[in-house]
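Box 3.1. Reading complex inputs
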Amino acid sequence: MKKSALIGALTLTGLAAGMASAGTVDDVKAKGFLQCGVTTGLVGFAAPDANGNWEGFDVGFCRAVAAAVLGDPQAVKFTPTTGKTRFTALASGEIDLLARNTTWTFSRDVDLKFTFVGVNYYDGQGFMVPKELGVSSAKELDGATVCIQTGTTTELNLADYFRANNMNYEPVPIETNAEAQQQYLAGACDVYTTDASGLAATRATFENPSAHILLPEIISKEPLGPLVRHGDDQWADIARWTLNALITAEELGVTKANLEEMAKGTNNPEINRLLGTEGDLGGMLGLGKDWAKNAIAAGGNYGEIFNSNIGEATTIALARGLNAQWKDGGLIYSPPFR
Amino acid sequence: MTAMTDQQKAGFRLSQLIYDTRYRSMTIQAVALILFMLGIAWLLSNAAQNLAALGKPLSFGFLFEPSGYDINQQLIEYDSQSSHGRAAIVGLLNTMLVALMGCITATVIGVVIGVLRLSHNWIVARLMTVYIEGFRNVPVLLWIVLFMAVFIESLPQPRDFRGDDATASMVLSDSVAFTNRGFYIPRPEWHSGSMVVVIVFLLSLAGIWFFGRWARKRQDATGEILPTFWIKLAIFVIPSVLAFFVMGQPITLEYPALKGFNFTGGIYMRNSLIALWLALSLYTAAFIAEAVRSGIQSVSHGQTEAAFALGVRPGRTMQLVILPQALRVIIPPLISQYLNLTKNSSLAIAVGYMDVTGTLGGITLNQTGREMESLLLLMACYLTISLSVSAVMNWYNNAIKLKER
Amino acid sequence: MADLSYVRTQMVPQQDPPITETGAIKWARENLFSGVTNSVLTLLALYFLYQVLHEVIPWLFFSTWNANSLAECREIAEGGCWAVIRERWPQLVFGFYPSEYYWRPVLTFVLMLVALAPVLFNGLPRRMVWFSALFPFLAFWLLWGGSLWLPVAVIAGFALAAMSVIYLPALTGTLLATIVAFIAPVLWWLFLAAPVASILQAILPLAIEPIESAKFGGFMLSVTIGITGISLSLPIGILLALGRQSNLIAVKAICVGFIEFIRGVPLITLLFVASTLLNYFLPPGTTFDIILRVMIMVTLFSSAYMAEVIRGGLSALPKGQYEAADALGLDYWKSMRLIIMPQALKITIPSIVSLFIGLFKDTTLVSIIGLLDPIGLSNAIRADQDWNGIVWELYGFIALMFWIFCFSMSRYSMYLERKLQTGHR
């Protein structure tokens, strides 16, 4: 309460004594909560429920980081960001971490000066069309009207794809998923294009999902991942290794259910190092010994977060596909904890 | 202060800067200027520091790099290989297009509604009041999204025009199609010889102007009133039509036709343009109508009575006596309504119309991450438009003021 | 023969006026069918009315309030589906504000009406103005919660300024007192207010549950932004208007530049500045939350318009008032405070109300930068699986709420205009 009073005082008087930024992790510990940027609402990835509690895949990662740093998965405040405001919010320090299905690209990393801490979802841009249109390939879309969400890489991919295939199209730029959905369902555009996961999530909410098909072409690589500002390596390491801890936990079979038991010590040294019973990896990050244990306790390991938010048991019903563990033929792969 | 009194003989003490009205204004101004400069310097140094920390020094180089995205409505040649700067210009032209169309229709609707609101016809006057109060008291953004929703939900999609059991059909002998993607209207095609028709048409316009001048002079001299409207109409139509047929119909119409996913051919007015245009014009027209009404009411009733006493009919009274006098009262609020409409056109992004806010302040800003430069340019664009519109309209305002004296 | 008469000797019994000259028919003839044009207009209007009512009345009549999703609505009723309003109206009004604290915004709103009372009605005790002055702090505390000592500490800054103006001149002279009056509160706010507030809080805890601004939404957000904008812009607008009128060229140039700049750009670009740029202009590492940033920009925006409104009021005053003030030997600030401003502000009240209506409508623009005002919430609601595809009911409800609010205020401002007229003409 004192802190909010202090912040209030700062804002009220419009003073703005530069709060010495010693390092994001210290700021977060001092504040007592993590400020996490998410989308304004995409079913399965981040959306507030009727009581205003945030849920979703990206939200799960925020909670894991909060648990690793502060020991409390609820010590997160969420800032909904639009495609336009997300990078400024991160750059200006308004948020500590951005987990908003953001594509890792060269220019965002190098030119906009952000550090992507890994990939938590491998995605690609796809197309959705009504079945009755009789289209079976994106190559047949010459002359179509295409709904796109602005402020993302999809616009650029789309322009490239149609130009490379020498086709024409009529772009209809739209700000929010809800509006895109309305226009698509009313037939104001023939095709809706965005990340394949987003298309699946959107289709799941339709009255009659089977009347719409996702075309087989995936026209881009969209590795989505959380990101932090350049220049604070300690904070980037914490975020990166929290993600890796969740992935490694799944690989090693550490789940929310058997976590306590495993934390007592196992004969697998990597599990022991991960959960802090052997060595002090947490200390090297500047966190407690049980950082990874807390992170996993927040929402389970990578696979559990995936399954409970966007997995096949949910209405969104995404298969693991590329996002399976490397052992199962996917791309999810964590460097070793050593 | 005591030290200062020693210099009394010099005729000027520092305390005079504060207590002497001759110098005080200078002091205040100097202090104000210094404070202002300090404030600006503080803001700028903060910005410079922050930008340096982010490694994004102020640079407009991105304007010359390929934009990589497409724009649906382009008044000039543009594709995804064109530069961000060109995308901004495309957007700026779109802004101007919708602002211009909006200003014209808003004026027409506004004047009609404003006059009708004062009509003696009870039901018409009431209806106009409902219109004005309804449109004025609901946010324009809501009108824009509402009009867009009306178009999308209630008009047929192009697919409905296809097949034997088509649920929708084109109107005006298959020349115009109203779809929820927009309206398709025929486009004139210019063949060889069409230049002659155009020249004849322009000449006839000049002819109308000269005729008008001549008729007015004649009326001043002889008092005789010619049926100028009909004669002007004849000059407007007959020579052009004659030239058109003499040259062997060099202008044809290209009709829109359903091909593939969409209608092709003809002029395509996108639903975003139409929704924005209609919403802006109807909303602004409500304000203009109020300005027109108060302008008309500001003309004293004696003017109307005098005109009636001279035997002028009500329509001509309005046209010749009331409106010219009301115009002086109407013009200043009209200027600010035009400016408002232009500024409100920036809400285009709510319906995906690619105006300058949508290109420069939207996609370009997103893709390049140059918030500072994009927004500075965007504001400069609007400021230029606003200042030039108000300059032109103020010049016009002064012009009609002078005439009156 | 004698009874032969060319003049009627008996009164004819009074007859009813011809049927065409009485009652509804006369009224219709005069008001609806007085000529060919008028008759055509009337018929057109009637046709138009018929068309509209023909569509709307069944839609309104066969609507339902009881359903849990749009699909359910469509099964029950042919017409509108108002169930979405029934389910979501607390959200549309209060956003995500915790429902157990709804009394706080409601109380704030009621107190606001009380605070406005001295303006609305004559004949109230003058002391009410003190409450109006305290109201902004009270409102801040009620809406955002937290420690009561914080607004108290801020008020203490103003008290400090007032004290230095009243008591210091006797000790140090007017000039120094004025300078102290500016500097002392700033120093107090910068360095002392927050610690003092926390100490007081530690000694005597007086706090209510703090609520972060991210939870603000719906009409409450619109009203909060609108009221904050208009009330903060009043003092700034007065200063700008005076600056624009002043003879000091430098001051005038600054004010004119600011006013014309703000009036020349659309509000949405200023909101973009709030959402993406404002942080760049603050010392590194400072952040505000987005709603406060929006309030800052909206205040700047409306103060430029406010300045123009007040300038109108100033120039509407007869020159004699200025001259009389000078003749009494009042200095600039005294003449402004005691003679000019009270009159100028009084005649500008209707324009200020109109300005507020415009600003209130413009608050819907914040939905474009991702805040959840009614329009932003309507998008969120339409994204919900249950209400996917609902359009008219939501927009209609929002439009109706805005309409009621704005229309009643515009009527009120017309009433004020009549009430406040003092024959200067």
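In summary: The mean pLDDT of chain C is 84.
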